[in-house]
non-specific serine/threonine protein kinase (Macrostomum lignano), 257 residues
Amino acid sequence: HEEAAAEAAAEATVTAAAAAEPEASEPKESTAEAAAPTDRKRPLIRPISSTRYVFERYDLGRTLGDGNFAVVRACVKRDSGNEYAAKVIDKKKLRGKEHMVLNEVRIMRLCRHPNIVRLVDEYETKAEIYLIMELVKGGDLFDAISQVVKFNEIQASSMVADIAGALHYLHSRRIVHRDLKPENLLVYRSKDNKISLKLGDFGLAMEVEEAIFTVCGTPTYVAPEILSETVRDRDQELFQIKTGTFEYLSPYWDHVS
């Protein structure tokens, strides 16, 4: 029953999202910060001579998370006091995957949606790349699922609506994310304590002009048809919404072996 409910909820919500996108309700940025990510005239990532340029503008604080080639740290812009997240990428560890970061920056510059993490600015030195992004303090959805154990149907339907809204926005711009999973969904809690989701990590995202059948993404969330190359990436994301919805509605430990 839970699996059937997950599929029905996902399909119904995607249909609703196609009819009306959610209105933005995020804090306003300064004109310069808001314009920076969509300015196509400047270099894709702004080159700077040293990290001093970044540190003069941002106070980098505690580590929020880390990965194979990057560390994410909380930061505060010195002139405004606004809080952000700084993704600090070690270029030595990045070798061979530079295209993923360039692609992430290019795609995120095009996106302005309340359920997609905002890219504010980016800098590159000889050793590191700094991506300054919206700070989402609630952690990722995977951790939230493990802590809550199970969400109710009302909570799950709200989450599916957030994801569907973000995907409809991307698909209407011929962008596919290709790695939709709880770890790439960040939990945002508003001042009135309302929880919403924001989609992040666009390393595998791409703009498409024709049907593609690429085998990519996290194996646990890849549609079987993708492995046999019989379904498009856009269709895979509907499959990923369904599997995610099943996770929200099911006790966490039922999936742990």
